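[Q] Does anyone have a clean structure-token version of this?
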Amino acid sequence: MTLKKESQDFYRYLRFITIPVVFIGFYLLSYMINPYRPWSSFFQRETSAILSEWGFVLLFCFLITEICLTIARILDRKIPWVSHPLSRFVLQFSIQIIVSILFLYFYMNASLTVFGGQMKFSDLNSLALRQSFVVSTLLSVLISLIFTGNFFLQQWKAAMLETSNLNLKAAELKQIALESELQSLKMQLDPHFMFNNFSTLSALIEDDTNAAQHFLEKLSRVYRYMIINVHKNIISVEEEMRFAEAYFYLIKIRLGENIKMQITLSDEVLKKGIPPITLQLLIENAIKHNTASRSKPLTINIEEDDQQNLVITNSLQRLNYNIPSTGTGLKNIESRYHLLSDKLPEVTETEDLFIVKLPLMNI
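[A] Here you go.
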């Protein structure tokens, strides 16, 4: 439901509450202003006289309520409560008091013309007339208080609901961030990952000291990146690519020409943002579930499409044996996107390719 529709419903249903309250308030205020009036004889009159007075008062309450709500509707468009609260308060109360007094004057003149016979407005009791104007003014203030109080109550409820949703979203994001951090820590402490890298480093130290030094620098960059950025929600594609290249270098040293990666990205895309460690999860996923050989290397392409999505494609060459998969990596990426963006990743699988499209975000 749109805000406009909600506002229309609000005014439509408010009058059903306000008119009875104003009707009762009319007699209560009249009694408080003039308690010495012979109220005990009120119900001793003929039923037709009582009903006529009630009809007269009810019509008056209905019209003054409609006038006050119309003023509030107009001021909602011109001077909203949210942007100009003090000006709106002073202006609304002032206009409603003035308009209610003018309305009472014309209403009483019209009533005298229809029902008063030869009686004129000047013939009315001055004290009773002043009391009527006071009651009319107080009723307009009462209507304004009912409307304003209800408006702020609705705003408070909306604010509480929004705060609750934000807190829930923050809790979900924290949970997903913890899962991402756990995933990163698992990779850092994964004995196979550590053993493979240290074995490779040990072999390089014996064969090529310069290559070993370079490998150690890349390994340090990978760990440093995960430690520094694992707590962040969004990071630039450029930083993520530097990490992905360092991570791929470690894989490349071990697998050689069995694996290839090609990157084709524009400068504009590099300035956009994605959740950190996303590319590492996708590269790791591709290596985990596919064969890689010199005759049939595993190829990974990172590029952009016309909608400036980041497209990660790997050749699909499934292993002959099944590796148990929980899908944690893809689920984590999708969950983080669900909280950070209106767009979600798209996963497509063809006969030869596994494709993941990552929407890019502004940093």
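[Q] Thanks! Anything notable?
[A] The longest strand covers residues 298-304.
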